[in-house]
Amino acid sequence: MAFQWTNQKKSKPRDTSVRNVEGVVQQPDGSAAPRAVVQLKNMKNLQIRSYIANEEGKYQFQGLSMSVDYELTASYNEMASPKRSLSVFDTRLDAVINLKLEAKKDSKAEDKK
What are the structural domain ranges in the chain? Predict the structure, then answer.
């Protein structure tokens, strides 16, 4: 009987209690927003993590809990994206959430109304 030894590692099954989220931050005209700041808010403990998008506007957060809701938003120059949610009901292990920037609303002008 012959045995063959290989140096290939058996791949471990992926941990289904951990997920990742990634996406692209876009300006209102659809072009990428390089170096936009993306914030990820943990809705359970209110901790906020920030990521600066790369030159193509791409961002990513890894090692997120499947049992926590998250809120994502991006800002760039005088613009911000609407808040987007990553819910516990979203079972994707690798979620893609693109963020589109809009002109920031002037809060001082809103207060005067």
Answer: 19-103
Beta carbons within 10 angstroms of residue 56's beta carbon: 11
| 8 Å CB contact between 99 and 81 | yes
Q: With beta carbons less than 8 A apart as the criterion, state whether 20 and 95 touch.
A: yes
C-alpha to C-alpha distance for 12 and 108, rounded to whole angstroms? 54
pLDDT tens readout for residues 10-37: 677 878 889 999 999 999 999 999 999 9
pTM of the entire predicted model: 0.79
Q: Please check whether the domain covering 19-103 is classified as CATH 1.10.540.10.
A: no
Cβ 87 vs Cβ 46: under 8 Å? no
